[in-house]
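Lecture 7 notes: from sequence to structure.

We start with a single chain of 336 residues. Read the sequence below before looking at the structure.
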Amino acid sequence: MKIFSTVGLTPAQRAIIESAAGGAEIVDRQCRSAEEMLAAVNGGCDILFGLRVPDDFVRKIVGLKWIQLLSAGADHALKGALAENSAIALTTASGIHATPIAEYTIASMLAYAHGFHRLMRAQMRGEWRRGGGFMDDVDSLRGKTLGVVGYGSIGRETARIGAALGMEVLALKRNPAERQDFGWNPPGVGDPEGRLPRRWYGPGECAAMLAESDYITVTLPGTPHTRGFIGAREIAAMRPGAYIVNIGRGSVIDQAALIRALDEKRIGGAGLDVFEREPLEADSPLWAMENVILTPHMSGAFKDYNTAACRLFSDNLRRFRAAQPLLNLVDRATGY
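Now the structure, written as tokens:
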């Protein structure tokens, strides 16, 4: 068996994979093209561990059985040759982002509640911002309702932290009757049994959940089924002071409708890490809106990312060698 990693592994990361490889050959090389990838493995391998999956590699590689992605989303990979070849198992790195993205999400909510977004702008202008009713708008997350749109690993960890801060949790998922999380998660992270939400909602009940939420986190992947999931109707249902954070994909929210609601102060604010087009256009009104906290699609970044991905890959590699079901196996019908 040959394992090909397009991640440039450190000795410690390679050791993590070797511990589960059972003596299999491991080739790791950073490659910039399908040609370099094919040359690195002489045209054949059993397992690919990496981020990008070029069409030429999928079409020409011999013996490829499984691809372990370095990303939580599979939308970039489920195109072209891989979408056509369902015989190749595809798994994601869902779960390794749960802690950093949940922390980012709660940090965005705390920053908004305590007015940090306004204070930092005042700092840049050299203003001492205490008066003018500023402190009248400062609030606490305790006692507020947190609506989680997409109750996967990230949403569950966000719910766990939110509940620890005294928030009440509502959850929306594709099948709310399936409350357990069978994906990969480090011990102590998230809500694997689905015990935290006070109420569960299905996809057709999004507006109803938003109407009950003070803070909302959107963790949905980008698929044809989730495009425009939160549109003008759903945004209109939000509470006047509600704050929404999107760390999923920009396509999930109708960005034009969101901008209108923010501009007209029909909702409180938004924390945005993803956008319909990236990089965000220089002339977008979002840049200048005081009730918006935005970042350049980096909520999942952390310095030990590749090591965490290697641990997940190692766990899945043991399952693969034992012919057991793989964790985070992508359902090609749903796109995640």
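The longest helix spans residues 305-321. Keep this in mind for problem set 3.
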